[in-house]
Amino acid sequence: MINPIIYNKIVFKLENLSEYYKILKDIQKVNKKSFVNDYHFYGLAERYLQLCIEIMLDISKMIVNSQNLKRPEDNQNVFDVLREEKVISKKLNNQLFGIANFRNILVHDYEKIDREIVYSNLQKNINQFVQFRKEIAKYLKK
Questions:
Q1: How far is residue 32's CA from residue 114's CA, in Å, rounded to a whole number?
Q2: pLDDT tens column, 19-53
Q3: Cα 120 to Cα 115: distance, rounded to the nearest angstrom
Q4: What backbone phi and psi angles, to 5 degrees, belong to 29?
Q5: What is the chain's Cα-based Rg?
Q6: Which residues of the chain fall below pLDDT 70?
Q7: What is the pLDDT at residue 1?
Q8: pTM for this one?
Q9: What domains are defined for the chain?
Q10: Three-class DSSP labels, 53-98
Q11: Dihedral, CA atoms, 71, 74, 76, 80, nearest 10 degrees?
Q12: What is the b/e burial string over 87-119, where b = at least 16 CB atoms within 10 angstroms of the residue's CB?
């Protein structure tokens, strides 16, 4: 059982995840040419993608720490630990493969971010945020 303080922090982060997802869904409607050429679109997408990934990593680490689970080797590995403990599904874990690396590119290699890759992630991968939210909410109800 997760202590009430951690529980409330996770719930707050899940609410933010939902809010940021809605913003990304809105940006997702922009066509590729406009997206790549307009800093308003790609800048917002980069930032909100980063925030969503950060939230997932934060929540995952909170669960690992509060439940005294095996310490992950790195950010990517934290999702593997949650899968092993049946907090998230194998399917979601597979979908999240590489997402921590994408976060590192957004945060650390920002000078060479390929806008087309950001656009591709925006178009193909943001439903992972919804699935993560669902699976964590289900876990919290146990």
A1: 13
A2: 999 999 999 999 999 999 999 999 999 999 999 99
A3: 9
A4: -75, -15
A5: 15
A6: none
A7: 81
A8: 0.94
A9: 4-141 (1.20.120.580)
A10: HHHHHHHHHHHHHHCCCCCCCCHHHHHHHHHHCCCCCHHHHHHCCC
A11: -20
A12: bbeeebbebbeebbebbebbeeeeeeeebeebb
| Per-residue pLDDT, 77 | 96
Token pair belonging to 79 = 């999702």
Following CA atoms 121, 98, 12, 63 in sequence, which dihedral angle do they give, to the nearest 10 degrees? 160
**Token digits for 135?**
């699976």
Alpha carbon distance 44, 53 (integer Å):
14
Distance CA 22, CA 18 (A): 6
pLDDT value, residue 2: 92
Residue whose entry in the numeric block shows the structure tokens 């990593």: 57
* Residue owning tokens 């907090």: 87
